[in-house]
Automatic annotation (TrEMBL):
N-terminal signal peptide: none
Protein name as it appears in the record: Exoenzyme S synthesis regulatory protein ExsA
Residue stretches in coiled coil: none
Protein keywords: DNA-binding, Transcription, Transcription regulation
The keyword Transferase belongs to this UniProt entry's keyword annotation: no
Organismal lineage: Bacteria, Pseudomonadati, Pseudomonadota, Alphaproteobacteria, Rhodobacterales
Amino acid sequence: MIRQTIQAERIKSALTNTEFTTSGGRATFMLIVSGRGVFTSDEVERDVAGPCLIWAPTGWASQISVAAGTRGFLIRMPVPALGRALPTDVISAHVREVVSRRIFLSELSDRAIQSLVALFNKIETELHELEPGSETVVDYCVSLLMIEIWRAAAPPLQATQPQPHRISDSFLNLVELHLQNHWTVGEYARRIGVSRDRLNEAVRCAIGIPPHQHIQKRLMEEAKALLVTTNLQVAEIGYKLGFGDAAYFTRFFRRHEKLAPSKFRRTFAPLWRSRSEEISFADWP
């Protein structure tokens, strides 16, 4: 349930100082609309006063003590929720870069504050009411929240094509998010905002193989892992990986591995069970 993944909390410190803490396993977004406090994360301690935006990415345990009368809100987000919500188009790499670091912003426009407050209100409502489709609505709201943070914290984008390393990074991230969707290389290029030829060149330069080969390689790695580590039927594994037809999945697997999925399982599942160390399926035959 989304209630167990994303947490939204209002800051309403009335008569006494109040402390909020977060573990490093969740990213933390905080907007202090009015009032003041002290933000502490690892060795960083900083006085903050509203209006102020604070962002602490995953991996940074943090604590904030707010003074009596402070108003604002706090959103805690685990890694899977961020992965679902981060934009997947041309601005993806830029947003990821910004939200990978700690952010303190004290100069916020009225428009930005209004947008952030509206997004928090919508997230809070969806988490509380749990209507059909609430998880999807929350993901979209968090995606918009990431964009608002990026807009507030990042310099304006230049009207130039992304650098090759940004193109390849965006492609690799999108593949992990949408592997089961079986996007074409052209679709990945469109989402990143470059031509298919430019994507092909950037990915070849970064990882040594073209985009379509990397996509097929990742599908095979996931298929092998599921075959030897789960009891799912071959057809179920195919459906889980986005193949609409079990026979097509079998043909795809046999074309790349020269073995049927069932024979691969009989051959390698015992090997996996007999080994105590972690196996990298990328290195398997």
